[in-house]
Protein 1
Amino acid sequence: QVQLVESGGGLVQPGGSLTLSCAASGTILRIYNMGWYRQAPGKQRELVAAIARGGSTNYADSVKGRFTISRDNAKNTVFLQMNSLKSEDTAEYYCNAQFIGKEYWGQGTQVTVSS
């Protein structure tokens, strides 16, 4: 059993910054990939950023240059630093952790970008 708990969401003005955190707990063996997805009302869930255990990263084109994903393997935690936020970034953000043949999801944390 693995549980993912997200934190750091909230309301921020356009151009502002937020940092999301996701800590995994439970039966942790080896997390290969961790990532952040987001889903806005009426839209499909989309990948925002992902990071492999070794540190390689992938970003959605819409967030490249603005968001940075990182992880602390010792603490089984992944972060998403979000800068220069836009209204289009408003969504529910979900943490994801991938193991061999299995993945887990967090409960989601709301990010709202509005003036």
Note: The chain has a mean pLDDT of 95.
Protein 2
Amino acid sequence: QVQLVESGGGLVQAGDSLRLSCAASGRTFRMSAMGWFRQAPGKEREFVAHIFRNSGMTSYADSVKARFIISRDNAKNTIDLQMNALQPEDTAVYYCAGSLRGSWPKSTPQPQMYDYWGQGTQVTVSS
């Protein structure tokens, strides 16, 4: 009942910035949170950041704190990920995700906590 579409990926050099966007459609009001995950070749999908749609509170992976900023526009049903000071280790496919979860633990969010996924957008950072 929810479709997510990412955009904004590309090829950049270390130190550059990039903004990813995710557009949601359908019964978006049912989602409690939306976020971003990333997956590099041969590695597991890992949490990057998420934002609660009601309160606007955010959470970030330690690896991206102080560099990435997640934001949302509920009226437009979009979330963005502003990525600054990109490093080669940030290279991955970035996925937008939405969750119907009613409560959240204090531990790092896992992919199993999300119900809807976009197709992903490639981010490549060269040194």
Note: The chain has no helices and eleven strands.
